[in-house]
Amino acid sequence: MNTIFHITNGDYLAGQLKEISVDGEIIICREALVSGPLKAGSLEEFWKIRSEFILKNYNASSESYYKKVVSEFEKMINIPEGSEVNLWFEDDLFCQVNLWFCISLLSKNKDLKIYRVFPKTSEKDHWKGFSVSTNSDLEESLRSKVLFKEKDIKLALNLWKAYQSQDNILLKQLSEEKSDCFYFLKEVINTYVNKNPDVFIKNLIESGTTDFNLIFEKFQEELGILGFGDLQVKSIYDKIVKNN
Question: Which residues 6+ apart lie within 8 Å of 191 measured at CB?
Fold first, then answer.
């Protein structure tokens, strides 16, 4: 039975970890909890509202959502007591929201050693995260992992609840807390609260930039801290174009 688990934000990083043959089982977080409905009375209801949102916005079937997404979260819930769990997540908002949710699932098991694994980046390409990591960078990141203490887990749980409730005042208060497991919280939360991606894209379109590739490039330059991929930006872009 595995006692070491690696949770990655997406399939690409999981593939990178397989290349360096890390010890343990890899579990993949395939959600994009940064957008869409999050309030639910139970996990079953949560999966239902998320699958409906994914179907409506990304044209993926409910069956596919349960097979590819929920099944991975269930693996997290069923990690054996006493295991080591390494969370490979970046610092942008997209990754952070997924990270907070994963910790909310893991925290139900009180006998886990949970670690944060940070990407090795320079100031210039920080928001590119693990995508610019070499195999040796990944190995160094794992060696430099940081243990989640009780206060860090509590902070993650509070961040998830605040984001889930869209309580921006509480999010800003929580972003002031110091933690070795969370970098750039203040910058990320401030951008989330003060910068509206829809308005940013709408302004670009109204100023004459209509090509999606150019818009995505500018979005990454200005709002890379949000961590939105092309699917999230395209969804906003399509909605604005449709309504104009």
Answer: 93, 223, 225, 226
Report the C-alpha gap between 91 and 180 in whole angstroms.
12
Going from N- to C-terminal start, the domains of the chain cover 4-186, 195-243
Residues in contact with 103: Cβ distance below 8 Å, sequence separation at least 6, in sequence order = 87, 114, 148, 153, 156, 157, 160
Closest among 111, 176, 172, 120 to 145, alpha carbons compared: 120
Q: What percentage of the chain exceeds 90 in pLDDT?
A: 83
Do the Cβ atoms of 7 and 29 come closer than 8 Å?
yes
Residue for token digits 């054996």? 80
Confidence band of 176 (pLDDT split at 50, 70, 90): very high
* pTM exceeds 0.70 for this model: yes
Residues in contact with 36: Cβ distance below 8 Å, sequence separation at least 6, in sequence order: 50, 53, 54, 57
Residue 205 makes CB contacts below 8 A (sequence gap 6+) with: 215, 237, 240, 241, 244
Model confidence pLDDT, tens digit, residues 41-84: 999 999 999 999 999 888 789 999 999 999 999 999 999 999 99
Q: What is the CATH number of domain 4-186?
A: 3.40.1360.10
Q: What is the pLDDT of residues 7-45, one digit of tens each?
A: 999 999 999 999 998 999 999 999 999 999 999 999 999
On whether the CB atoms of residues 175 and 186 are closer than 8 A, the answer is yes
From the centroid of its chain, how far is CA 54? 16
